[in-house]
Amino acid sequence: MALPESEAIPYEPHDLRGEGLLVLAPHPDDEVIGCGGLIALHVREGRQVRVVVVTDGAEAGNATVREEESRRALRLLGNIQCDFLGFHDRRLAEESDALKNRMREILIDFKPDLIAVPSPVEIHPDHAALARAFVELTQQDESLFATLAVARVAFYEVSYPIRPNTLLDITSVADLKYAAIRAHQSQLDMRDYVSYARGLNAYRAMTLPPNVHQAEGYWVIAFPELRTIPLSTLRESVGSPPRVEVAAEPLPVSVIVRTKDRPRLLREAIDSIHATAYPAEIVVVNDGGTQPDARDVRLVNLAQSAGRSEAMNRGVRAAKSAFIAFLDDDDLFYPEHLETLSAAARSTQDVAWYTDAVSAFARAGETYSRMRIFGQDFDRQQLLVDNYIPLPTLLVPRETFLDLGGFDPAFDLFEDWDFLIRLSQRGSFTHVPRITCEIRHIEGAGSITLESPEGSARFRQAKLQIWKKHADLINENLIASVFENQKRRLVAVYNDAVEAKGLQNHMEIDIARLGREKATLSGEIQALHNRVNEALMRISHLEGANAEIRNALAAAEADRHEKGVRLKDLQAAFSESQQTNAALFGEVSRLQELLDMIYKSRTWKLHEIVERMKGRA
């Protein structure tokens, strides 16, 4: 069956966010060990977080102390609403019904869109019981579908590693998570949970980018998809631990398989019985077809076709076990089917026991639709009007089957319904509301349901045949009672549909509003892009101008350097010139002084007299 991809190891961290996060924790401390990082990230981003601690944890310490430690740890992470349900530690499986009622109340009240639940492969019995109860609640309560239609479920790991399909980077809040774990001092005195969590978180980061140092692993699935997944398939997808064999006397069961010329489908049906690992006898009744290649089974070959009813009767008569289960060759058991029915048979004294089935519609080897059509509690009056118990879901005592005469050979359609009506007159049936088998409707494979669909002439004729046979049990009061019950169911379904429609309309309004906001934001983003482009163009121009300025500055600097060199040369020449001038002025001054001395001497005076005498004066 199709499930979210989980085989591939995630190599990039995922965005695991919800507007409302609900964490279901088996004991005080599991919430921070398993998903403290997820909680811290939600609180940091201002999202709503609610933590529900289911048991009191009294088997591992004082319940009051453990609750206070849990409150203290959550306060370290932020403002978190927390509920403590106080169920008995290590006895959660015994209180499953009360637990489911409380969880339902919380889910409807809080309406989360992300729900963290311990994985169904956890080793601790309370962890496993909480996971099982949650899955069963999703499959039993149709009203939750409307409330949680868009929710996701994140299964987390505490005591047993899972095979995650989602890795959450908690590097930025890892220290906060470990501080919250340290707040559970009473538990740290027994085990170093900080080191355990730190090691697991480091290991989960191994496949992620180098900047991610701690991560939490989750297996995430949409809430509505859980309605059609058996627990065994879910466990296998999450990462089922090795099966622990328990030595106990099994209830003796024979499985009767009718077949005729459908060898491939027969092989798949027999394989599904073997996959239960239950020590059941398998009786294959070949109703006049080619002898099948069926090993490890008791084979009843009918030379000519005896019809569906008589074929089943022959198989039951050939069976050796005290209890009988039924399987047509185009249907499948899930691994937990026989063990679930046998456990119910051991615990009650009813005349029959039945589980729930998924209806799978397939063509060309591909399943195109999976529906929860069958899943109703036992109602003897309703059974007289319509059948709601598929034959593969049923377990009955062989002696009772034979004492009732088995299937009526007069019926080749609805023979099982006729038998169930007769059986219901002997007592009540126990309904185990778990999906444990699959009713397959395969196009082109001789499916009697597809060949005679509801509303067809054959379908109506077969129904009339049932009602005529049991007319003495059907009266006006019964019809009125069934009608009233169905009306109540339809009203409940209608109210759920109206609520779902209202939720859909609300979501459509929100989507339209978000679309308008997106358009507005797109316009603003485009305007910002235009402004950015304009700024980039201006920057480009400015960078060009800056380049020119830098070139001019470089040229000016070069010219300044050249002129500085010339200035130094001129300064040196000027200094030399000044020195020369000073020397000349000194020489002139000396000569002037010499002339002054000459002019003042007697010789010069005689020279002047002689010159005058010569007429030169």
Describe the protein's architecture and organization.
- By secondary structure, this protein is an alpha/beta fold.
- 50% of the residues lie in helices and 18% in strands.
- It has 19 helices and 16 strands.
- It has helices at residues 30-44, 63-77, 96-110, 125-140, 143-147, 174-182, 185-188, 193-204, 231-238, 263-274, 308-318, 337-347, 380-385, 398-403, 415-424, 448-451, 457-469, 476-600, 602-613; strands spanning 20-25, 48-55, 81-87, 114-118, 152-156, 166-169, 215-222, 253-259, 281-287, 298-302, 323-328, 332-333, 352-363, 366-374, 394-397, 429-442.
- The strands form 2 sheets. Strands 8, 9, 10, 11, 12, 13, 14, 15 and 16 form a 9-stranded mixed sheet that branches. Strands 3-2-1-4-5-7-6 form a 7-stranded mixed sheet, sandwiched between helices.
- The longest helix has 125 residues, at 476-600.
- The chain is elongated.
- The model is unreliable at 1-7 (pLDDT under 50).
State the end-to-end CA separation. 147 Å
- Assign a percent range to the helix content: 40-55%
* Radius of gyration, in angstroms, nearest whole number: 46 Å
Helix- and strand-based class? alpha/beta
| Spatial shape | elongated
- Strand % is 15-25%
Oligomer: single chain
Q: What summary fits the major beta sheet?
A: 9 strands, mixed
Overall average pLDDT = 89
Low-confidence stretches: 1-7
Number of strands: 16
